[in-house]
Write a structure and sequence with these properties.
The protein is mainly α and about 80 residues long. It has a single domain (about 5-80), classed as Non-ribosomal Peptide Synthetase Peptidyl Carrier Protein, Chain A (Orthogonal Bundle). It has helices at about 5-15, 20-25, 40-55, 70-80.
């Protein structure tokens, strides 16, 4: 597990108002929705990811690619602005 996975799992836990633990978010390989992340939770998660990592998640993007912590990490690797 990398630091980014831990950070993203923490954002998932916060977005779910504690309904999903960091450990559960890290362990889920199919869908955060299966753990109970609601549509409002996804909105909060996307907003938190945008703020934290400086990316813009476009509405036209396929949001199913953001449905697990590893998928979120992969999305950030391809979407994050370069650091100097």
């Amino acid at each position: 597990m990398t630091d980014i996975h831990q950070e993203l799992a923490t954002l998932v836990a916060e977005a779910s108002d504690g309904q999903i633990s960091v450990a559960e978010a890290l362990a889920e390989s199919e869908s955060l929705g299966l753990l109970g992340l609601t549509s409002m939770g996804y909105v909060r998660l996307i907003q938190a990811v945008e703020r934290r990592y400086g990316v813009a998640v476009e509405v036209d993007d396929d949001l199913s690619t953001l449905d697990t912590v590893p998928a979120l990490a992969a999305y950030l690797r391809t979407s994050a602005p370069p650091t100097s």
